[in-house]
Amino acid sequence: MAKVVMVFDFDKTIIDCDSDNWVVEHLGVNEVFSQLLPTLSWNHLMDRMMMELHSRGKTTQDIADCLKQIPLHPRIISAIKSAHASGYHPYCYVNFVPLISVLTVTIWLKPERCDLRIGLVMESIRKSIPGDADKLFIYVGDGTPDFCAALQLGGTDILMPRKNFPFWELICNNPMLIKANIQEWNDGMELGTILLNVSNTMITDQNSNERPDALIPVDCKSQTASISGPDVYNRNVLPVPQ
Q1: Are both 160 and 177 inside the same structural domain?
Q2: Where are the alpha helices (DSSP H) in the chain?
Q3: d(Cα 226, Cα 216) in Å, to the nearest integer?
Q4: The domain containing residue 36 runs over which residues?
Q5: What is the distance in angstroms between the CA of the first residue and the CA of the last residue of the chain?
Q6: Within a domain: residue 237?
Q7: Is residue 155 over pLDDT 80?
Q8: Would you name the residues annotated as active-site residues?
Q9: Rounded CA gap, 146 and 157, in Å?
Q10: Is 137 in the same domain as 62?
Q11: Backbone φ, ψ for residue 9 (5° rounding)
């Protein structure tokens, strides 16, 4: 029986926004951010934003409280809890791969393991899983860096790019480089539904030779939508669990 490993990106995947931008906007440093944006790399820019917040008397707890207000689709909450708690586990590891600060992920999800270098994360996760049994990876992401992880997936793995986002477009433009089975998704409702279905099917059919997913081909013809994506969660959201 294969060990199942679910790997999620964070910004614009688990949540529908960029957590850095959320903090900048909701803690009121937009003006300074806009002034420095043309002159600094993103990491240096966010370092300056943290310094600016500190100079205004904001604390780590203030940032934590701000991050806890980011909406999270209830279907994604259900899917992640199901994957973590189902009887098919412990052969399913849920790892979160953020491209933001450790603080955000620690506040939100308190993961046991977190590797910020996405180019090394798949190798690190593979080594962290005990035993010699086959491993089935499910990778969910939206951004350009996720493509590096996708290249490490094999023909039995599942790749889940968010449609009309940079990760999806890279796959469309380089299909011959991808070995994994592809299941695209559009919004939090669809992602949560797919993950629940995959988890439930794995539990039910774990002794079957059939694939545990209902794969659909990537539709690379619809590339007119905005890369940043619509605000699809706002009609049905929950605050982050405390």
Answers
A1: yes
A2: 19-26, 30-36, 42-55, 60-67, 74-85, 102-108, 118-128, 146-150, 166-173, 188-204
A3: 22
A4: 19-67
A5: 35
A6: no
A7: yes
A8: 9, 11
A9: 15
A10: no
A11: -70, 170
pLDDT at 34: 96
Q: What percentage of the chain has pLDDT greater than the value 90?
A: 28
Tell me: pLDDT of 179 over 90. Answer: yes
Taking the C-alpha atoms of residue 98 and residue 204, their distance in angstroms, rounded to an integer, is 31
Q: Band of the pLDDT at 202, cuts 50, 70, 90?
A: low
Asked if 119 and 176 sit in the same domain, the reply is yes
Positions at the binding site for Mg(2+): 9, 11, 142
Tokens of 129: 């899983």
Task: Mark whether 198 and 97 lie in a shared domain.
Answer: yes
> Closest Cα partner for 211 from 148, 136, 149, 144?
136
**What is the pLDDT averaged over residues 191-198?**
86
What are the φ and ψ backbone dihedral angles of 160, each rounded to 5 degrees? -125, 85
Position 209 in a domain: no
Q: Binding-site residues, please?
A: 9, 11, 142
Which of 172-181, 200-209, 231-240 holds the top average pLDDT? 172-181
Task: Copy the structure tokens of residue 62.
Answer: 């203030």
**Integer Cα distance of 104 and 184 in angstroms:** 26
Token readout for 236 is 């049905």
Is residue 28 assigned to a domain?
yes
> Cβ contacts of residue 204 below 8 Å, gap of 6+?
none
pLDDT score for 241: 42
